[in-house]
Amino acid sequence: MHYDSLSTMIKSTAAVPPQGPVALVLVEDDVEVGTTLRHHQQIGFKSLIACMPRSFTLPRDLEDSVIRVDYDMTAPAAMETAVNLLITSLPADTWMYYCFNAEYLFHPFCETRTVGEMLAFHAEERRSAMLTYVIDLYADDLHEFPNAVALERAYLDKSGYYALARPDEKEHPKERQLSFFGGLRWRYEEHVPAARRKIDRIALFKTKPGLSLREDHTFSDEEYNTYACKWHHNLTSAICSFRTAKALKLNPGSTFDIPTFTWHNSAPFEWHSRQLLDLGLMEPGQWF
Known about the structure:
It contains seven helices and 13 strands. The protein is α/β, with parallel strands linked by helices. It is globular and about 50 Å long. Strands 1, 2, 3, 4, 5, 6, 7, 8, 11, 12 and 13 form an eleven-stranded mixed beta sheet that branches. It has a two-stranded antiparallel ribbon with strand order 9-10. It has helices spanning 6-11, 33-42, 78-89, 115-124, 183-187, 243-250, 273-278; strands at 2-3, 22-26, 47-52, 67-70, 95-100, 103-106, 129-139, 154-157, 162-167, 173-181, 200-206, 237-241, 266-268. It has two domains: 1-101, no CATH class; 103-288, no CATH class. Strand 9 and strand 10 form a beta hairpin.
């Protein structure tokens, strides 16, 4: 199905997914659009919505299984506008996920268990949202891959991640909330605005009336922004993303300062959840 706007899609009863989990992919450029959509289909999302510029081409094999919506990602507040429109249109308590193209969600044991199975367990633990860490991927050779994207030659940082307390309006630490940092945004922070340096994102969440996403990837309901419940550790997931590497290499202000992203803490990305679990980049919680 193809719609000329999100408003048109929302008005169409045939387009509103009858069940979750629903994935929203926000397409900023034409890099790895097909692989992004196929990956999220393969890990178990029931419905996929691709918001993408009208001039882009959706791969033919995805035309019948992906809801395509013409959308301008260069518009102000494009991300939160799209997510919040879907929150209001989907049935309450629908699990929803959002990411950008060239980003790939990995959850614990995703090779043998679907994202729906994971979210069913997460909901049984009385959780309505899940913290995801955005783990930067980058090509090993920027001369061969000038946009820093190479699926078969992808690397990630195996260390250098840390967390800081998240203060409230009175500068007191918020309960069970931390801001996480690391990866390329940490190593090249001089090229990244301070407000965009953290790598945590509440990318998986249940819709409900009155809920809204903010520009910094947090929600209006503070409980959604917590990393765990009060009783024990909960599941977390990882979004392995070329997005920051692409931006740093395509930005004229940073591209010439970066001959390579690899350093002594780089490791080949294995495209497997076990590597992310071993590196501590996501948490299985009580789910085994």
